[in-house]
Amino acid sequence: MKSIKNLIYGSSALLVLASCSTKQQMENKPLNIVYIMTDDHTAQMMSCYDTRYMETPNLDRIAADGVRFTNSFVANSLSGPSRACILTGKHSCQNKFYDNTTCVFDTAQQTFPKLLQKAGYQTALFGKLHLESLPVGFDYWEILPGQGDYYNPDFITMNNDTVQKHGYVTNIITDDAIDWMENKRDKNKPFCLMIHHKAIHRNWMADTCNLKLYEDKTFPLPDNFFDDYKGRPAAAAQEMSIVNDMDMIYDLKMLRPDKKTRLKSLYEQFIGRMDEAQRAAWDAFYGPIIDDFYKQNLQGKDLANWKFQRYMRDYMKTVKSLDDNVGRVLDYLEENGLLDNTLVVYTSDQGFYMGEHGWFDKRFMYEESMHTPLIMRLPKGFDRRGDITEMVQNIDYAPTFLELAGVEVPEDIQGLSLLPLLKGEHPKDWRKSLYYHFYEYPAEHMVKRHYGVRTDRYKLIHFYNDIDEWELFDLKNDPSEMNNLIDNPDYADVLDSMKIELNKLQVQYKDVVFEK
Ligand code: SGN
Ligand code: CA
Hints:
This protein is α/β, with parallel strands linked by helices. Among the domains are: 208-311, no CATH class; 448-508, Arylsulfatase, C-terminal domain, CATH 3.30.1120.10. It has 15 helices and 16 strands. It has an 8-stranded mixed sheet, sandwiched between helices. Bound molecules: 2-deoxy-6-O-sulfo-2-(sulfoamino)-alpha-D-glucopyranose (SGN) and calcium ion (CA).
């Protein structure tokens, strides 16, 4: 794939974009990048991917006018690691940000915003960064400390002050991003704007104006909601089950003075940030649900179903703000004549479980959390529309943006530029397999360390550290990954070839695994 580099020029490339092959580039207009990333937004909850649950008309606008990647994946399904993969274009083993709990992102290393900045781009970042170090490579930034808050959130500003802003986080991040495009950037330069939302991270707190939505909806439990994890000991060992681990007060908001849960005080902290009007609206909505819930005294499967319905509704209400705010960004770009020379990207830091296997959260290499949504509205001159089915990964964004900007893609970047796919090409030598490695264990949700390989058809995973378990799935016959084929003699040849592929990828990406 490195051959695409012969399309690319050096850092003065902004001036010589005419050499690139698309019409827009021939018009010699440098292209902008608006990169919108949400937290924990899974494709099941976007109507352009999945019509079972909710409508997301603004996200659908991006997909309808542009492209939808149907095989888009992360390299390590967790916030900080995913963001590090995105910024560097490298797997965790190379960018060294392995997990959320022990790592600090080394800002001395190469990132695509730094390279864009060097090439004359204006770069800006708003929202969640979650890398334990301050942003480098941005002309302007304001970030949430850590996970940030939904209501009246604090922001860390460029002079290292912390300021509290009034309102709902998704609106504020969007306001600030639009304000930067309108008032703060140098309008003579191309720009790369990264809008990183906190939503829809746990504990799914919606804006008060959306609280009443979706209450008339009920959803069928996923078929494998009551998964028994047979043949999958690592799946059995997790602590991310809706039935066992979802907190009645923190996650599901059933606050009552006489009730105690593990995370009650954290919830009280969150709602303690609200002003009087916000709190009044919150209590007015949840109050009757709380009364009704405790009156019913649900047990067993009835309680499980009730938890699932509340989870789905709260998550959807939180997505609603996000979809509206993406619409505001699209409108701004359109009204200001920027759509034609801007690549608009919408993605998430990973996928999420909406009750599949009985879970919330992510981390596992299983489909729901290894997948991440990826849709793009393309600048004028890129004629590709509809679905792109090639397997892509979040390490591919950095080389894509660099190539789009006419900046040379450094040799050590491990991802592949998606530009050929956006131009409608189907490169014959496109990757046939993806590598994955998750490290955060022991930690919250207790998902064991694991690495693995995924092809179009099969997935091989090795869980290690305080366990030594292999899993093999046939994604065509068993898309929900319920049936571990590791000991099935009919799949012995498949297993052999998947092990060879896995070793090949570990060499290619220079991942040395210490299994204890
Ligand atoms: C918090 C959440 C977890 C979640 C991690 C990582 N717990 O710790 O449920 O898995 O973030 O999420 S909470 O009690 O604080 O809500 S990530 O998206 O940032 O990686
Ligand atoms: Ca996340």
